[in-house]
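Bug #77: duplicate submission created two jobs. Keeping one. Sequence:
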Amino acid sequence: MQASSYRFIGKVVIVSGLISFAIKAIGPQLAIPKTPTVAMVLVLLPAILMGLALGLQYSLQRR
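Kept job's structure:
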């Protein structure tokens, strides 16, 4: 792997960790109803955001 690949993987790990921390630290302070739908959205949101970021990065690299 090239150094740029390691740098990109590092960025993905850092952003994922920040999103996870934000959910854990800020989540309990929000007045969000405790329903299965809300729980599913909160669990899937980081994966969806990372998928979008990776897809955008892939799209930009192909040009």
